[in-house]
Amino acid sequence: MNDGGQHVTVRKPWVQISNIVSGAGRRRLAVFELLLCLILSAAPLALPDYLMVFVTRILILSLLAISFDLVWGYAGILSFGQALFFGIGGYAAALLARDHEVRSVLVLLPIATFAGFAVAILMSFVVVFGRGVTQIFASLSTLTASYAAYRFAYSWYYLGGQNGIPSLPYLKIGATELGDGPASYYFALAVVLIVYLVSRAVVRSQFGLALSGIREAEQRVAFLGYRVSRLKAAVFIFAGAIAGLSGGLSAFHEGFIGPGALGIVLSSQVVFYCLIGGSGTLLGAVIGVILTETLSYALSDRFPDVWPIALGVALLLAVMFRPNGVISVFISPRERLGNFGRATAQGRDELA
């Protein structure tokens, strides 16, 4: 109510943004999601066994990319330490399998998920709740934590040192061993679909809209009475749990977990996935993994001596001509606002 006794409606900034997102963008995105799901479901019918192992790895890395996209694309936290949660989850499950001969997915994967969840809680006190935290501080903190964990795993004999933990067994569902074939692939695909759908429901909920508001106008959202730090911490911890799950799957798919799973190389790699595919859409993160890993595989096979340079040039061209990611082919700048993802300069201008 204003000074004249009239009622005044205060609109939340992210609700205004989400109201301009057209249904056409969602329909196009849904069609592409369905098409990609059908292609992935039919992949075992067309691919040889050795490529099935490669595609399964892509699915597992997609989980890690989704976790990073939640943190950066929606909450606006540029984390250079997603590999920390990935590696912690992998090591936790691997140690349990090595020391206690556990192989059940019902035990190992929840342990990996919880390990990532627990470490993310600890990191949130530094990255989110710390006094005077800036974007640069958050990025450097996650980067430092990832490197410290890498050095710790590299030097501690109990974790295998630089050799890691090799010869991990295949996961089992009941009496069924997953192995390297279609069973392992479809299990990984099912996990990715569940995580993707849950994550999509989260970012399209009121909570997700609040995150969109924080990303675009954090001070305004805080002024409206929302606990910004708690919202950011919630998505940071949720993403850490997903990364831990991804690490657990990766360890048993590869049959090995080493210090590199905690390092800054993998953390930087997942940033490129989202840059290539498009951040703040979830699907863009998955597309980025598929394109980057497939291109790496093809170039390393054809040009074994210069493939890293060729890959770098290809990725540079992709960023130059599609600065908003490949997903921008299907979603316009306006449709990337609100709960679709990070706003572009063009999208912001359209709001003016």
TrEMBL record:
The molecular function GO annotations come to: branched-chain amino acid transmembrane transporter activity
Q: Which PANTHER family would you find in this protein's record?
A: ABC TRANSPORTER ATP-BINDING PROTEIN (PTHR30482:SF17), HIGH-AFFINITY BRANCHED-CHAIN AMINO ACID TRANSPORT SYSTEM PERMEASE (PTHR30482)
User: Per UniProt, what is the membrane topology?
Assistant: Multi-pass membrane protein
Keyword list, A-Z:
Cell membrane, Membrane, Transmembrane, Transmembrane helix
Localization: Cell membrane
What Pfam families has UniProt attached to this entry?
A: BPD_transp_2 (PF02653)
Q: Per the record, what is one GO cellular component?
A: plasma membrane
Q: Where are the transmembrane segments?
A: 29-47, 77-96, 108-129, 136-159, 185-203, 233-250, 306-332
Where does the record locate the signal sequence feature? none
Name where it mostly resides: membrane
Q: Which organism is it from?
A: Pararobbsia alpina
Tell me the protein's name. Answer: High-affinity branched-chain amino acid transport system permease protein LivH
